[in-house]
Automatic annotation (TrEMBL):
Gene3D superfamilies cross-referenced by the UniProt entry: FAD/NAD(P)-binding domain
Swiss-Prot/TrEMBL cofactor(s): FAD
Pathway: Secondary metabolite biosynthesis
UniProt cross-references to InterPro entries, sorted A to Z: FAD-bd, FAD/NAD-bd_sf
Similarity comment: family membership: Belongs to the paxM FAD-dependent monooxygenase family.
Protein name: FAD-binding domain-containing protein
Source organism: Aureobasidium mustum
A GO MF term: FAD binding
Length: 381
């Protein structure tokens, strides 16, 4: 009789890494994902050697081939290069780090996996016979002896069993946008200012600004921008820490007024931070959310065959954090612990990973503070 597949809730970076690592060890898995299978993460993330080199071993791929598959500028012969000197707070970014296209990275990792798209978790219940999963398409999976919650910062897995765990919102006003430009515009305006780096940052009169490459082809380029500043108390109309998830796309006119007030921007920031052009962008208001599940709670869940990883267990702010790298490392190392089929080994995994999560969370908070202090590159013409 074949063993029951391990259920993984969430097919983001952490979930697919865990699933692939278990599959490589001969352990069957099924991933349940709320989203559709259509592309959803068309943006760049910074990967560090400490993360991607262990990943290469699992994928049985050399670094050059890996970069050719996932680098944001791979289609035009690039390798995703990042110049740490162009960042205000490089943190873990080194010369070996590079910008990867997240969707292509996830697609590469999830090859061979059984992913049930549009099957997000609605709730779970613990019974004497194991854990029951209730999915969004009115189906259920009962008697689960082992499952993993990798369903992100708003984890339904976590909320179903640890309702008291909340999200802290750091006091920053942050907006993100995406824009597509033709190659001639990119080559003429963006490339000279970005030089050899696929992400650059400056500080301008109390505001942190970032421009990054998502993807480049022969015809066009996709770029992202970030505008971020400290919140200015309860009177700050742009700071909405209690807004619903659906409110991320509700952009007030005050934001565009702040954009118009920026001065002396060099290229490509001058081109990007143009209020009229930004009104045509896909703009989202980001909240810098953080959370942490206590270690005793993780031990208790593990004793019942429920494990949390990635943002489900330890979310970091989008700016200044290393959520993607830690989620990948979580997946690789948790797979080793699960494959050992030893409860004490799982407990040991939490004991080893928890200090890593704590340290990274504290560093991320310090990093985002430093990013807004004006250290590093300055705006100048």
């Amino acid at each position: 009789m074949s063993p029951q597949p391990l259920s993984i809730i969430g097919a983001g970076l952490g979930g697919v890494t865990l699933g692939r690592a278990l599959l490589e060890r001969g352990i069957p898995v099924v991933l349940y994902e709320r989203a559709t299978s259509s592309p959803r993460h068309g943006y760049g993330i910074s990967l560090h050697a400490s993360t991607y080199k262990p990943l290469l071993k699992m994928l049985k791929m050399d670094e050059q081939t890996f970069r050719q598959n996932v680098a944001v500028d791979a289609a035009v012969g690039g390798n995703g290069a990042i110049d740490p000197k162009r960042l205000i707070c490089p943190r873990d970014v080194a010369s070996t780090s590079f910008r990867a296209h997240r969707e292509r990275l996830e697609k590469l990792i999830r090859q061979g996996l059984d992913i049930r798209w549009e099957n997000g978790l609605e709730k779970l219940e613990q019974t004497p016979n194991g854990t029951s999963l209730y999915l969004q398409n009115d189906t259920s999976r009962e008697g689960q002896t082992c499952m993993v919650g990798a369903d992100g910062v708003h984890s339904i897995t976590r909320k179903s069993i640890l309702r008291e765990v909340g999200l802290d919102v750091l006091p920053y006003v942050t907006f993100n946008g995406k824009r597509k430009v033709n190659r001639s515009t990119f080559d003429e305006i963006y490339a000279p200012g970005m030089e050899s780096s696929n992400v650059i940052e400056i500080h301008n009169n109390g505001v942190f600004l970032q421009v990054s490459v998502n993807d480049i082809t022969a015809e066009q380029a996709s770029v992202s921008w970030v505008y971020s500043r400290p919140a200015q108390g309860s009177s700050d109309r742009c700071f909405k820490p209690n807004r619903p998830l659906s409110g991320a796309s509700d952009i007030l006119k005050e934001f565009y007024q702040e954009i118009a007030a920026l001065q002396d921007l060099p290229q490509p920031f001058l081109e990007i931070f143009d209020e009229q052009k930004m009104e045509q962008d896909r703009v989202l208001a980001w909240l810098m959310r953080t959370s942490k599940v206590d270690l005793p709670q993780l031990y208790q869940l593990a004793s019942n065959g429920i494990f949390l990883m990635g943002d489900s267990a330890h979310s970091q702010a989008i700016l200044g954090g290393e959520g993607a790298n830690i989620a990948i490392s979580d997946g690789l190392t948790l797979a080793e612990a699960i494959a050992a089929r030893n409860g004490e080994t799982i407990t040991s995994w939490y004991s080893k990973r928890f200090p890593v999560w704590q340290q990274s969370l504290e560093i991320s908070k310090t990093t985002i503070e430093d990013m807004h202090k004006g250290q590093g590159p300055k705006s100048k013409v």
